[in-house]
Write a structure and sequence with these properties.
The chain has one domain: MetI-like (MetI-like fold, Orthogonal Bundle), CATH 1.10.3720. Helices cover 78% and strands 0% of the residues. The chain has helices at 2-8, 11-57, 75-81, 84-115, 122-134, 137-147, 154-161, 173-201, 206-213, 218-246, 250-256, 265-275, 278-308. The chain is flat.
Length: 309
């Protein structure tokens, strides 16, 4: 009996050491929270105050010089939903987002599949394709406007070499929309490229090698083996790029100088809030924020699902 008790006695110091370690961990966490709390409160207030103020303005009548002229309830939202300009901005935002996502994803995926291979000058090409992502917006838009200007622009000069008549991109609403989507895709595909290239490099080649042994060609290997493995990351990229496209102000505004046919929800909300009625612009911004919130929720769900796989 005594020997048994003596043999069982040593575990007690381990429990004490474990308890001491747990207490130290809690102290470290508490210290980390206390150190970060001032910054969290400051940044939270800087983000929360404009959000709450904007929501309050959406229920009031006023202008930028005198924002609070009286409570009008849901009247501003009724004005927004009855506005043809708002629905025009919604249509363009949808077309703009879908076009930008599709074109930038296909371009990024094609280049990612090329650059994960061992090809000459791969490092130089990787750096070069990231350039559109880092160029300041005002510089990029000014350059594209110069290249697309009338018949003397660089784009029309190149089209003329193939016998194509000049395209007046900024005079035709349809071509203005196409130009905006192309430029947005040009600015966005490097993000798709980097993300997809990292995803492709993390895949195991065993399945691809097995498919080749079974007689599958390159397209069958990609469609049935590679693509299903990158779908989780691709879904996150689709949602994230949709959010960025809906929330993009500078690309359509700087490229077309605020043309009515290429106004998205961001431009519509800004113009209404600054130049017309602040409440109407705030209501439009709240509606846009709600849509972006739903998209962000789905993106988080997709991220969680991808992490579990």
């Amino acid at each position: 009996m005594t020997a048994a008790v003596a043999t069982a006695a040593p575990p007690a110091p381990r429990r004490r050491r474990r308890r001491t370690t747990d207490m130290q961990t809690r102290r470290d966490r508490l210290l980390s929270v206390n150190l970060a709390l001032p910054s969290i409160l400051l940044l939270g207030a800087a983000q929360l105050y404009p959000l709450v103020q904007g929501i309050l303005y959406s229920f009031q009548k006023g202008k930028t010089t005198n924002p609070s002229q009286g409570w009008v309830g849901l009247r501003n939202y009724e004005t927004v939903f009855n506005s043809s300009d708002f629905w025009g901005a919604v249509r363009f935002s949808v077309v703009f987002a879908i076009g930008a996502v599709v074109v930038s994803y296909l371009l990024g995926l094609g280049l990612a599949l090329l650059l994960v291979r061992d090809i000459p000058m791969r490092g130089f090409l990787r750096v070069g394709f990231i350039v559109p992502w880092v160029i300041p917006g005002i510089v990029a838009m000014t350059s594209w406007r110069w290249m697309m200007q009338d018949q003397n622009g660089a784009v029309n000069i190149v089209l003329g070499w193939f016998g194509v008549d000049p395209i007046f991109f900024f005079n035709d609403p349809k071509w203005a929309a196409v130009a905006t989507i192309v430029v947005k895709a040009w600015r966005s595909f490097p993000f798709m490229l980097v993300s997809l290239m990292a995803t492709l490099q993390s895949l195991d080649d065993v399945l691809n090698e097995a498919a080749v042994i079974d007689g599958a060609n390159k397209w069958q290997t990609f469609w049935h083996i590679t693509f299903p493995q990158i779908v989780p990351m691709s879904a996150i990229l689709w949602v994230l790029m949709t959010i960025w496209s809906v929330n993009d102000y500078e690309t359509p505004y700087l490229l077309t100088l605020g043309a009515k046919t290429t106004r998205n929800l961001m431009i519509y909300s800004f113009d209404e809030g600054i130049y017309h009625q602040l409440g109407v612009g705030s209501a439009s911004a709240v509606i846009t924020l709600s849509v972006l919130g739903v998209l962000a929720y789905f993106m988080l769900k997709l991220q969680k699902k991808a992490a579990e796989q």
